[in-house]
Amino acid sequence: MAFVGDSVGRNQMQSLICLLSRVEWPIDVSLTADDYFMRWKYPSYNFTMAAFWTPHLVRTKKADSDGPTHTGLFNIYLDEFDEKWTTQIEEFDYVILNAGHWFYRPMVFYEKQKIVGCHSCLLENVTDLTKYYGYRKAFRTAFKAINSLENYKGVTILRTFAPSHFENGVWNQGGNCVRTKPFRSKDAPLEGTNLELYMIQLEEFKIAEKEAKKKGLKFRVLDVTQAMLLRPDGHPSRYGHWPHENVTLYNDCVHWCLPGPIDTWSDFLLEMLKMEGVRSTNGERLHLQTN
């Protein structure tokens, strides 16, 4: 099982590791010392999990470590595969794809090796196309990469965007998440940026799913957006860092506490895997009946 995307995807894998520790603790079988590309194996169950770091899903290069908002400036090659993960996933039975929060940072968009626009780059004569343009194109290219793999036979799962909960400031300007209770549904409608990112994911998913079906590939959605929108109480805030780290500017309202609300993703995932088993069994029965 591969978790492809940003650190919230890694957060999901860590949650699953904690839950599975009740029956077995995995061994590190990583192919590199890079913490962004870890692999864990459960020998007793012949099960391996891997994380592939690709916060923009496509080929990316940091152009400036500071940038216009002091959060970096990234060149995003929207029509180019990120081969750090696309060349590695053919062997996996399940690939869980996610991305979102890194698209808030300044980006310069490239297509066919030429600048086509940007998001908050503040560069002269470069049109601001907004993060939504880059987000859509990145998912389109990521799905295209999966559908282009000759030997990939796995199930691709889109894990939908999990909203952050910064209040009284943005993430790098003192925003925090100190609520201790979930929202009620009526108090936290899915709207604005969260809704736009969510809809872009689903729209690109549906397009890619049609292509996948032609190749006999399975695409599924792990929809966590609305559920996580209601959990402002589930983030580590200032406790998401080691005590010696400087956290005056960054309270963690993006990732999720362990144990915490993110553990429910494994419940959802387990039910999805069970359904895949039922589908496979029914498919075999149907195949036998028609022969």
Describe this protein's structure.
The protein has 6 helices and 11 strands. The protein has 291 residues and is of the alpha/beta class. A hairpin with an 8-residue loop joins strand 5 (58-64) and strand 6. The protein has helices spanning 7-20, 83-86, 130-148, 192-214, 225-229, 263-289; strands at 2-5, 27-28, 39-42, 47-53, 58-64, 73-81, 94-97, 107-111, 114-119, 155-159, 218-222. The two termini are 33 Å apart. Helices cover 32% and strands 20% of the residues.
List the helices and strands and how they pair.
Elements: E1 2-5, H1 7-20, E2 27-28, E3 39-42, E4 47-53, E5 58-64, E6 73-81, H2 83-86, E7 94-97, E8 107-111, E9 114-119, H3 130-148, E10 155-159, H4 192-214, E11 218-222, H5 225-229, H6 263-289
What are its keywords?
seven-stranded mixed beta sheet, 291 residues, globular, 11 strands, 20% strand, alpha/beta
Helix content: 25-40%
The outline comes out as: globular
Order of helices and strands: EHEEEEEHEEEHEHEHH
Q: Biggest β-sheet: count, sense, barrel? A: 7 strands, mixed
Helix segment tally: 6
Distance between the termini: 33 Å
Mean pLDDT across all amino acids: 93
Rg, rounded, reads 20 Å
Low-confidence stretches: none
User: How many strands appear in the DSSP assignment?
Assistant: 11
Based on secondary structure, the structural category is alpha/beta
How large is the share of residues in beta strands?
A: 15-25%
Strand order of the largest sheet: 2-3-4-1-7-10-11
